[in-house]
Structures are given as C-alpha cells and as structure tokens.
UniProtKB/TrEMBL annotation:
InterPro entries: DUF1285 (IPR010707), DUF1285_beta_roll_sf (IPR023361), DUF1285_C (IPR048342), DUF1285_N (IPR048341)
UniProt-listed Pfam families: DUF1285_C, DUF1285_N
Organism: Pseudomonas knackmussii (strain DSM 6978 / CCUG 54928 / LMG 23759 / B13)
Entry-linked Gene3D superfamilies: duf1285 like domain, duf1285 protein
Name of the protein in its database record: Proteophosphoglycan
Superkingdom, natural source: Bacteria
Start and end residues of each DUF1285 domain: 23-89, 90-184
Length: 188
C-alpha cells in the first residue's frame, strides 16, 4: 500500500481534456506502483483510507481513470497505475428513463457518477442468478469492460417493462432497447 498522499498524486497526473470525453486509459501502460487503500463499495460509495470520499467531483474524476485488467481494477494515469478494490461493480445504474415502446424502446441509464448510456449492443444488460438464494444481480456495461450494478429500484422498473419471448425453446422475460432483447429471467 502506498502513502496517504497517493490519491492526491494520482489526481495531479490526470490530463485535462475538457469537452473531449474520457481519458484514453486503455492506451496508457505505466508501471504498476502497487495498491492504494481505495475501495468502491457495492452501493457505489468510494472510500479512501476507510473513509467515504464525500466530494462528488473527486469521485467523478477518479471514475474517469478506472480500468479493469482481468479481475483487477486500477486507477491509471499516463505515468502510474495503482490497484484498488471493487466489491462488486465500479458503477451503479441509479436511474432509468424509457423512450418509446416495444422493440423500438430505448432504455437510458444514468450512473452514480452521472454517466448516461443507452442499453443496446454497446451497453448490454445481463442478469446473474445467485445459485444459493436465487436472487438476481443485474448489470449493464458502461464502457470497455466496466459494468454498473443496476440498482434494485431500477431493476424493478425493468421487471415492470418485461415482456415474454421464446429463447432456445424456453419462455423468458426481458426488455427491449435499441432493437435488442435482453433476458432478465425465466418466465415463471
């Protein structure tokens, strides 16, 4: 683990690209400098040294430099790569706006860091079922290989929108967005 000033050091290394989108973390391959005591909880709260980061602009900035390599998460700048812990997914989909209906429907999600994206081929929805509890864990791809856990209230909205469809001979419930059907569970 690095020293407590490491988070501030990382912030200072993030190139400023106003109006140009996200930094190209996928192109940066600096050496790994170890892990820092930063964690993203399942509810989307970011912690540094065990304390919640209360400044939303700082969390939003950190969220632009997160990268997943295999099962590990890192904050990456052009000169440094530091490991962090993520309890489940680095983002949470906290709101859903529905435009249109049927196969033409668009499902627009907003994450806890105010990223907006529409479910579709580039942002697929998937639902894992816990084999022990049978509880669903729904996710939507935000970017690259970074997902958002779909908040329970938002998942309930998806369930309300669900329609049946036959998939490989089985009846499933799912939702449409951008002409894609996303199965969210078997038809009871």
């Amino acid at each position: 683990m690095t020293d407590p000033g490491k988070a501030g050091d990382l912030l200072a290394q993030i190139p400023s690209t106003p109006g140009k989108g996200l930094p190209p973390v996928h192109l940066w391959n600096p050496p790994c400098c170890g892990d820092i005591d930063m964690r993203i909880a399942r509810d989307g709260t970011w912690y540094y040294l065990g304390t919640p980061i209360g400044r939303k602009p700082m969390v939003k900035l950190f969220s632009t430099i997160i990268r997943r390599d295999g099962d590990d998460y890192f904050l990456v700048t052009p000169v440094e790569k530091c490991g962090i812990r993520v309890d489940d997914a680095p983002f949470v989909a906290v709101t859903l706006a529905v435009e249109g209906e049927g196969e033409q429907q668009l499902l627009r999600f907003t994450s806890n860091v105010e990223d907006e994206f529409v479910a579709g081929p580039e942002h697929p929805i998937r639902v894992l079922i816990d084999p022990r509890t049978q509880e669903p864990a729904p996710y939507v791809l935000v970017r690259s290989n970074l997902e958002a856990l779909i908040h329970r209230n938002v998942f309930y909205q998806l369930v309300e929108l669900a329609v049946p469809r036959l998939i490989d001979g089985e009846e499933w419930l799912g939702v449409w967005s951008c002409g894609e059907f996303f199965a969210i569970g078997p038809q009871p």
